[in-house]
Amino acid sequence: MIQNLSHQNSVFSQFIAEIRDTEIQKDSMRFRKNLERIGEIFAYEISKTLVYETVETITPLGVAESRILSEQPVVATILRAGLPMHMGILNYFDKAQNAFVSAYRRHHKNNSFEIALEYVACPDLDGKVVILCDTMLASGSSIVLTCKALQSKGTPRHIHIVSAIASAQGIDHVKANLPSSNITLWCGAVDEELTAQAYIVPGLGDAGDLAFGDKL
Q1: CA 72 to chain centre
Q2: Which of 42, 51, 99, 164 could bond to 188 as cystine, CB 3.0-4.6 Å?
Q3: CA-to-CA separations, 176 to 56, 136, 158, 171, 187, in angstroms, rounded
């Protein structure tokens, strides 16, 4: 299932526009904050799909019935670009367990690359709802590899993949390589072009560098 929030008119679209804007991008703190706010909105939308139960809440004047989550999801991210969105999601699911995956592009001299995965820190995922966030879904290879790595830590009941900006090709790759029965893909925008080097156009550039500074 694909959920594209750009199909709705909301302030969410303003945050997407700002993370793309080359002038606003010069303020790395604002870039991170916008990604955090995007993560919060995704968390709110995903919360509508989760299971709730009725409990009694004691107030100063009596007892009220409240609807609360029956269980917390596991919030996962791909380091390092996914961290600001991860924090936004965690702001809403503040009792959630967390998972972190180190995946990156290992470039070769002929300008080709492969996705390398070096580290997974993760709780038991059996029967859990997992929210996996990464700012960009370009070729889709890192998301597919990460999902399979997480599934080695248990069998999630459902996986929500969250990406601020995705490419149409990356979405097709995810659909072709991951089961559709228990995965929902949430996107802030979908761009049609993916370059030979797997960069999204118009995209926004390198999200990790914009958020945390250039790397060697």
Answers
A1: 17
A2: 164
A3: 45, 18, 17, 9, 17
2-212 topology per CATH: Rossmann fold (3.40.50)
pLDDT digits (tens, 9 = 90+) for 191-206: 999 987 788 999 999 9
117's tokens: 């995965």
Residue type, 84: P
Of the CA atoms within 13 Å of residue 120, those in its CB half-sphere come to 17
Domain boundaries, the chain: 2-212
How many beta carbons lie within 10 A of that of residue 134, not counting itself?
26
Ranges of residues in the chain with a pLDDT under 70 are 105-114
pLDDT score, position 103: 77
Which pLDDT score is estimated for 101? 92
Q: Is 133 left (phi over 0), alpha (psi -120 to 50) or beta?
A: beta
Rg of the chain on CA atoms, in Å? 18
pLDDT the model gives residue 70: 96
Query: Interior CA angle at 158 toward 68 and 141, to 5°?
Result: 135
